[in-house]
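Cross-check.
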Amino acid sequence: MKIQSGRDFWSGILFIVTGAVFAWSSTIYPFGTSAQPGPGYFPFGLGLLLALIGVVVTIGSWKIKTEDGEPIGRWSWRPLLLISAAVAVFGIILQPFGMILSLPMLVVATSWASDEFRWKEALGSAAILTFGCWAVFSWALKLQLPLWPSFLGI
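Predicted model, tokenized:
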């Protein structure tokens, strides 16, 4: 069988591997039952679902013919490194700076990785996402996340 779309093939393989790793790594947590799911239940199901999507995409790469075979292009190193660094820095600064400051910094830094970066759109997205995260995690779910910077004493 010949691969008709290189992009779809390697995307599908990446989905399968990522889903299998998540499903396998979730087995260290109690699974629970459908009526009372444990902490391993949801990540296991998501991992299997991701792997299943990968199988569908990989099989589709053999059947759907594209004009040039859709070869994988050059790696975009700048966005890859910038987004990875921004997420790592967010994890480090969340505790001392709180969600109100660190989340907008994450959104602006990851937006900066795009060739179509605009300050107005990045700041608007940061405001909407920060409000949404506050509404979901702090207000609705009542999670104890650091909201404000610790040096403010709030």
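The chain has two domains: 6-63, 77-152. The chain is about 65% helix and 0% strand. Passed to J.P. for a second look.
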